[in-house]
Write a structure and sequence with these properties.
Helix content of chain A: 25-40%
Number of helices of chain B: 11
Organism (chain A): Domibacillus antri
CATH superfamily of the largest domain in chain A: Response regulator
Mean pLDDT of chain B: 90
CATH architecture of chain B: Orthogonal Bundle
CATH class of the largest domain in chain A: Alpha Beta
Membrane topology (chain B): Multi-pass membrane protein
CATH topology of chain B: ABC transporter involved in vitamin B12 uptake, BtuC
Mean pLDDT of chain A: 88
Structural class of chain B: mainly alpha
Largest sheet of chain B: 2 strands, antiparallel
Shape of chain A: globular
Strand content of chain B: under 5%
Number of domains of chain B: 1
CATH topology of the largest domain in chain A: Rossmann fold
Protein name (chain A): Urea ABC transporter substrate-binding protein
Helix content of chain B: over 70%
CATH class of chain B: Mainly Alpha
Number of domains of chain A: 2
Oligomer: heterodimer
Order of helices and strands of chain A: HEHEHEHEEHEHEHEHEHHEHHHEEEEE
Radius of gyration of chain A: 22 Å
Keywords (chain A): Signal
InterPro entries (chain A): ABC_urea-bd_UrtA (IPR017777), Peripla_BP_I (IPR028082)
Strand order of the largest sheet of chain B: 1-2
Shape of chain B: globular
Chain lengths: ~425, ~300
């Protein structure tokens, strides 16, 4: 082939390097969607709360729905008369899938807007970035996503599952029903690595075997090599803690390699109804996920919740575990404030313990000691219509145990 | 044995995917020296075009013909990518030739705008594209499964390469393009309209990104951020291959693909990325102009 020439100048090299650096920084646009109208609202009849999720960047795919659910809960509460006679005024900020931005926006919400509570976060990295800000400013964060446990900040309420409400029971279920040999795959960051450390200890204690453990960078899109490793090891179960878009690539390529749900069971902890739609139901049918809530969960509250959510945001939208946890977080906060008779952070924290709420996924109770919630654990099989069929549940809400103190095998993990 | 075949195939497959995303950039960045950060968003545009074509087929075309949507989507993705590229060149890039840092920042802005536009139109969550049935399953050789989708991408990138080669080497328009990239002022004084050539070249490079986007829909996620996953790799391969050398880009893509899969097999995906990066940086220390440097007589 003819070689086409153009000398490449020093300037080009510099610019190319800058280009790579810029792209690597993850396109962290801080295009805040500030829905506050600027004019300070009359503070006597409203109470401000922050809503802080990634509305742009790689995590927007999941977090936009949480904002929607939280705004819906706020609107419902406002229509029913508000909290302590005040209307809730949400201030929406964009964390832009960038952890320092989360910390910065949290600081802005607490110091400038002086919000009574913040509902926000998705990834553990974003929570870890916000944690010191909330502790220093004595703020209140309601974090609505399942996470890896081993944390209990006095300034955070965790309405998603901790490990003993999702991962631990699902591993036991898999060992009893699906097989003993496990292959662990996950994205390379704090949640999968911590979760897998716990799973490995549990496998050892409960008679499972580990045949492989692999991590891929967030946003990884080529799973050819990982799948050939899986083929070589022939596990009975793949425990999947991949997060975000990587799931799409993994499942598409797994199917292309000729591996179906009949050959190996894949149980995921980050795939809910919304993610199923983005991956394609034909690829996922027959695989499993562990959650506390499915859109198909059969409670009267859920029927109302799903109808209201579709009414507000469109018939084609689906709910899911984190969406439900975000929705109930607002209600739990409102109930705690009512009980405390004040929006003061310390008073709300004091009053929160023992508060019950009939959430769409069943009754939840705030545990006053570790500020997590009692939740029912569910395992579901993905159906051809993109919904889950529940195949197992824990029967009653499980007491949160973020440090796995009641499990002897977990000793020395933290 | 099956593992060796599979891994060899995975290496070639990853190389072909990388080549497909880098091919467009090899023209706009390699030949024209424009740093276009929005290149990844042209990939995204191609992917969404495929999605739209699929939706249109499932609504307006008899179900029996559904599997042919992909045949329509490929040229359409090229056209949409080329159109976006053409407009970008006419409205922005052409004012920024010889100002690489400015064009870097300006096109990065464009890339953010395009991402947000996609999010506004298609929503933040990913969309699903069902691959045509004739791309399902794969070829079994000695116990190794070679997925048809990956074979298809290898074929597609080969066709793109050959077409591009024929265009640049055998057609008048292609020869003009080469003349302009080799010596702009001389070409211009001999009556070649460099403005027209620039716009065409940029449109072709962008169109190839559109095709890459179309191909990627069968393997990975389709969302507004799809371009950001590939853009760094694409730049890396063009630089490794040698700026200005298309054949260098081919070798660059294949070596990164091979090295990446071998390293991932022996360590892990994160470590493989590090190994590939370190290897490339070390290589460029010894051969700063890349694998195949373009010989030039210009005295810039």
């Amino acid at each position: 082939m003819t070689v086409l020439g153009k000398f490449w100048s020093k300037q080009t090299i510099i610019a190319a390097i800058s280009a790579a650096t810029l792209a690597l920084s993850g396109c962290a646009a801080s295009n805040a969607l500030n829905e506050e109208d600027g004019a300070a609202a009359d503070s006597s009849d409203t109470v401000k709360v922050g809503v802080l999720h990634s509305l742009s960047g790689t995590m927007a795919i999941s977090e936009v729905s949480l904002r929607d659910a939280e705004l819906m809960a706020i609107e419902e509460i406002n229509e029913a008369g508000g909290v302590l006679g005040k209307q809730i005024e949400p201030i929406v900020e964009d964390g832009a899938s960038d952890w320092p931005t989360f910390a910065e926006k949290a600081k802005k919400l607490l110091q400038k807007d002086e919000v009574a509570a913040v509902f926000g976060g998705w990834t553990s990295a974003s929570r870890k970035a916000m944690l010191p800000v909330f502790e220093q400013n004595n703020g209140l964060l309601w974090y609505p996503v399942q996470y890896e446990g081993m944390e209990s900040s006095p300034n955070i309420f965790y309405t998603g599952a901790t490990t003993n409400q999702q991962i631990v029971p699902s591993v036991t279920w898999l060992l009893e029903n699906k097989g003993k040999s496990f292959f662990l795959i996950g994205s390379d960051y704090v949640f999968p690595r911590t979760a897998n450390k716990e799973i490995k200890a549990q496998l050892e204690a409960e008679g499972g075997t580990l045949v492989g453990e692999e991590y891929t960078p967030l946003g990884h899109t080529d799973y050819g090599t990982l799948i050939s490793k899986i083929k070589a090891e022939k596990p009975e179960v793949i425990y999947n803690t991949l997060n975000g878009d990587s799931n799409v690539a993994f499942f598409k390529q797994l199917k292309d390699a000729g591996i179906t749900a009949d050959d190996v069971t894949v149980l995921s902890v980050s795939i809910a109804e919304e993610e199923i739609r983005g991956i394609g139901t034909d690829i996922l049918t027959g695989h499993y996920a562990a959650w506390n809530y499915f859109q198909t969960t059969d409670t009267p509250e859920n029927e109302k919740f799903v109808a209201a959510y579709k009414e507000a945001y469109g018939d084609d939208r689906v709910t899911g575990d984190s969406i439900e946890a975000a929705y109930m977080a607002v209600y739990l906060w409102a109930a705690a404030a009512e009980k405390a008779g004040s929006f003061d952070v310390d008073a709300v924290k004091e009053a929160a313990g023992g508060i019950e709420f009939n959430a769409p996924g069943g009754k939840v109770t705030i545990d006053g000691d570790n500020q997590h919630t009692y939740k029912t654990v569910r395992v579901g099989e993905i159906q051809a219509d993109g919904q889950f069929k529940e195949v197992w549940n824990s029967g009653e809400p499980v007491k949160p145990d973020p440090y796995l103190e009641t499990y002897p095998w977990a000793e020395g993990l933290n | 044995m099956a593992v060796v075949i599979t891994q060899l195939f995975n290496g070639i497959s990853l190389g072909s995917i990388l080549l497909l995303i880098a091919l467009g950039l090899a023209i706009t960045f390699g030949l024209m020296n424009v740093i276009n950060m929005a290149h990844g968003e042209f990939i995204m545009a191609g992917a969404y075009t495929t999605y739209v074509v699929q939706q249109a087929f499932s609504h307006y075309v008899p179900a029996a013909l559904f599997n042919y949507y992909y045949i329509v989507a490929i040229p359409l993705s090229f056209l949409i990518g080329a159109l976006l590229g053409f407009v970008l060149e006419k409205t922005l890039i052409r004012f920024l030739y010889h100002r690489p840092l400015d064009s870097l920042l300006a096109t990065w802005g464009v890339s953010l705008i395009l991402q947000q536009v996609a999010r506004s139109i298609f929503g933040a969550p990913n969309v699903a594209v069902t691959a045509p049935a004739w791309l399902d399953s794969g070829l079994t050789i000695a116990g190794a499964v070679l997925p048809y989708k990956r074979l298809f991408i290898i074929a597609l990138v080969t066709i793109c390469m050959v077409t591009l080669y024929l265009y640049l080497d055998k057609t008048a328009a292609g020869r003009k393009m080469r003349a302009v990239t080799m010596n702009r002022s001389m070409a211009s004084s001999l009556g070649v309209s460099t403005k027209k050539v620039d716009a065409t070249a940029f449109a072709i490079g962008s169109g190839l990104a559109g095709i890459a986007g179309c191909a990627l829909t069968v393997l990975g996620p389709i969302g507004s951020t799809i371009g950001t996953y590939y853009i760094v790799d694409a730049f890396m391969i063009v630089i490794l291959g040698g700026i200005g050398s298309l054949i260098g880009t081919v070798f660059g893509a294949l070596s990164v693909g091979m090295l990446g899969t071998v390293a991932e097999f022996w360590s892990g995906a994160s470590m493989a990325k590090v190994i590939v990066f370190v290897a490339i940086i070390a290589f460029l220390q010894f051969k700063p102009a890349g694998l195949l440097s373009a010989r030039t007589r210009s005295l810039e």
